# Entry
Amino acid sequence: MSAVDDDGQAYLVHAYAGSRAGIKHRLRVCPMAPDGSRLLGEGKIVFHEPEKHPTLEGPKFLKKDGWYYILAPAGGVETGWQVALRSKNIYGLTRLKLFWPRAAPASTDRIKARW
# Structure
């Protein structure tokens, strides 16, 4: 998912598809053209903790009140959790918080119903 910063610079955050890339536990932030037409460099891996978070997918990117956030599901559908990363530096997402840690399928269904 992409985000545009206050200065007009656009960024893309992505995870890797394990079946194609052989990697499934990293998040990368890359600068991109403001119109989204191309990446402007390799970017940087901003999160990589395979022992604690063996699978990450579908990250969402946002900025609010000067903080950058990445939200990403982790751990798989049946037993997964949400990872929330936060930082004042777009490439330094170091503050970590977990939501719905290892939720059982029944409790996950209740969470979806409330949304």
Q: What stands out?
A: Confidence is low (pLDDT under 50) at residues 103-115. Helices lie at 18-21, 105-114. Residues 67 and 88 are 5 Å apart (CA to CA).
